Structure formats: C-alpha cells, structure tokens
Amino acid sequence: METFTRVLIYEDNADLRASLSQLLSGAPGLELAGALSNCTQAEADMERLRPDVVLMDIDMPGCTGIEGLRRIKAVAPGVNVVMLTVFEENDRVFDAICAGADGYLLKKTPPARLIDAIGEVRAGGAPMTPAIARQVLRLFPKAPRRPTADESPANLSAREQEILGLLVEGYSYKMIAADRGISIDTVRSHIKKIYEKLHVRSMTEAVSKALRQGLT
Predict the structure, then answer these.
(1) Has keyword Cytoplasm (predicted)?
(2) Residues 164 and 187 sit within 8 Å (Cβ to Cβ)
(3) pTM for this structure?
(4) Which strands sit side by side in the sheet containing 103-106, from one edge to the other?
(5) CA 39 to CA 60: how far, in whole Å?
(6) How far is CA 164 from CA 125, 129, 195, in A?
C-alpha cells in the first residue's frame, strides 16, 4: 500500500493558495490535507487534519506564520514546517529558525523545487534556497573556535567534508548529487553518516556545528 505525505497549506493569498493546492494535489506521493487562509486554529488543525508537512506563509493577518509555527511545534513537534516568504529578511529568518522551522523557502521557488523540498524535509533535511542559506550563515559567529580532539574534522572522510561544505553553501540533496556526480541515495547515505559523526539530527544543526567548529 502506497504511503502518502500529507501536506497542509497556510496561505492568505487566495490565488497562491489555489495554485499550491493544485500543484500538491497532482504530485505523486503527496496528499493535500488542507489549504487554509490563516493559522489561528493551528492546534485544532493538527488534530483534525493530521498533516506530515506544513507549508506556512510567514505573513498572515490575525496570527503570523511564526506564531503558528510555535503553536504547531508545541502540540505536534513531529510535523515538519517549511516557511514560505516573499522577502529574505534576516530577522524573519532568525525568528523562524528559533521557533523551530524545518525549512525556509521563497514563494517564487519553482514548483519542482518545492516538491523536492517536501521530500527533503521528510528525509531529515532542512530545505532552504541558497540566498536564504546565506542569510542563515550570517547569524553565526564568523570566527570558528578550534575544535577539540574528539571533534576533529578528521572524523569526517574527505567526501563527507565536501558534502558538508555544500550543505553549508545551501545546496539541496539534488544539487549535491549533480555537483558530485552521485545518486541522491548516496547523498542521503553520506549525510546520515555526517549526522552520526557530528551527533546532530538536522541539516540546520549540522551547518551550525560546521561553522562553529570550522569543519569545512
């Protein structure tokens, strides 16, 4: 029996909400759980619609996407929330990451990339456009501390360091596969090992640790 990823959309723009609904309804492996104009009832929505992934507009009247994100994570921490925004604003990126966002994409993201991002976040990744990834990097201190012996970069293989470097630059799984000439499954295998060696559970944590410890 095929397993579908249930996706819930929060978007106050009716045209964009309809467009996203149509895109997700026709995508293989995805199921549209709902498309709502606001997140004022986010807690109840989680229980009623039971999504796996939420696409969250960051700017909505009544209850902002960041407040909606906090509410969702409070009652359903296992639900992946990807923020959608028009602007690449530093404070918004920071607030969303602090609130537990699992990804951060522009609304102008191409449809194919958006579909890829849903699969990526379900696989444990943190999809971000390269421009937003660069914003995230600016949130971390510029001068990395010297790693201790048990945190040595030597714990990572040369290929793992290459892939970690691409994650830091904001590459998606598919972009890494194309850049290195390997399959997406191989990329996932390398990233799983990177997570294990760095003792992290997400791409955001891996990037943060790489920057703090100068691993790339």
Answers:
(1) no
(2) no
(3) 0.67
(4) 30-36, 5-10, 53-57, 80-85, 103-106
(5) 8
(6) 12, 16, 10
